[in-house]
Amino acid sequence: MSPQRTLGSEQRAVLFADICGSTALYDSLGDDLARRLISQCLTLLCAELPAQQGVLIKTLGDEVMCTFPSAEQALAAACAMQRGMEKAQFEGGHPLMVRIGFHFGEVLCDAHDVHGDTVNVAARVAAITRATQIMTTLAVAKNLPMEKRASLRQVMRAEFKGKQERLDIFQVVWEQDDGESTRIGIPAFRKFPLQLEELTLTHAGKTLHVNQAARSVMMGRDKVCELAVSSDFASRQHVRIELRFDKFVLIDQSTNGTYVRSEHGEVSYVLREEIQLKGRGTISLGNPDFAYLNELVEYAIHATKSQNLAE
Hints:
This protein is an alpha+beta fold. It has 2 domains: 8-172, Alpha-Beta Plaits (2-Layer Sandwich), CATH 3.30.70.1230; 197-303, Sandwich (Tumour Suppressor Smad4). It has helices at 22-29, 31-46, 71-87, 117-127, 138-142, and strands at residues 8-19, 55-59, 63-68, 98-109, 114-115, 134-137, 152-158, 167-172, 197-203, 206-210, 216-220, 227-228, 239-244, 247-252, 258-262, 267-270, 274-277, 280-285, 296-303. The longest helix is centred in the first third of the chain and has 17 residues, at 71-87.
């Protein structure tokens, strides 16, 4: 009978780094060369751990799992890994790319492994990350020094199995190129906005707000919607508007589509797609005729007070 493991609780950053397209490597290069390339890549990734007090927990084929005492150390190691990959010359000149995801929180530790929700979230973040990217979470952002947060950009709110609430996902800008832009076309040192914005929706005498406290609103014919619109053209749950960091996005999920008229009179039609709302204007659920005033929803975006991410 094996001895029972003793688990202790600690705050740690858990990081997964995964080699992209490893299966294709075996198919195209053969087992021996593919195995050597993957080994070279894993060695390069692990070489970045000591400088940030990283601990290698395990390798899983083409993936490494490691932990760090702090979110800042995990961020530094993740960036060093991607920069090392960018400069690396692998056998035969074959290019390799990795994707990295990490999360910070409480983990259960034993002598050789870590367990718990933090590990699961880190793995799921890595799974939605693309080649050459680093993705992380709000928990990491909140535990970084203010100057380090400038390298983060919120890109989505993700739904993970077993989590009741969607999680804010941030992309890390790690490239050191011209200091102004990156290969994906976003500011390399974008800071969190000093002033937040709020979207106001008005229909039939009712007003709702989309902001940091209430990040989404569902509109449609069904009375369960936060903003119910009585129209024969509207689907039961017609359209959702949500705040994605500093952008208000309209997501149509209807049969007839959604018409958006800007304050300048330009009309956009959205069907099972999404667009960003700007300024102010009018939304019509499924009806291209904006003459039916009792069916229209007015929207306006305006500035609100500033907010610190650490709050």
